[in-house]
Fold:
Amino acid sequence: MWHYKDFIFGELPCIVTFVSVEVNGQQNIMTASGMFVSDAPPLIAISISKESTTHRLIPKAKEFVVNLASTDQVDLAEKLGAIHGETIDKLKKFKIPTEPASVIRSTMITNCFANLECKLIHSIKEGNYILYIGKVVAHKIRPKLKPLIWFENHYFRLGKKLA
Ligand SMILES: Cc1cc2nc3c(=O)[nH]c(=O)nc-3n(C[C@H](O)[C@H](O)[C@H](O)COP(=O)(O)O)c2cc1C
Structure:
């Protein structure tokens, strides 16, 4: 279970993503943050709890999609971050619009700010999380949408350009 209280990392402004993964017809999606790792090759990292369904599926799938949430998806971020997908298909339960990825099998979420199709290249166990590093093999951006930000247990949109 995700606890925000007394959680120092709540002070880190984070991107909000939906990590989608599929193994032998079982699909799952969860809310997670993510971070840039490298641009050549293009690498992104997600840190996934050992207690999550997503953690069980990613090493088998060896691929996943990092769907960058848009400012229209606060409600979805809360829903997908509140339940485990072990016995429930969250994509069906929440009627999430999807489209096929172009290179990998995992499903992409249609109305996100961006979709990053990733091949798993590395996983690192640290504490009660696994850091999964994915190589972005295809991507799609919807520039009319804006990315969603999470900070101090609240959701934000980007503000004034400073420089
Ligand atoms: C804004 C937000 C960010 C989150 N970030 C992460 C994260 O980076 N890593 C993680 O393991 N869980 C994170 N969570 C919690 C998971 O989304 C939650 O435990 C989810 O139920 C796991 O789903 P699963 O068991 O179906 O994989 C976050 C939740 C929210 C609402």
In short: The chain is about 10% helix and 45% strand.
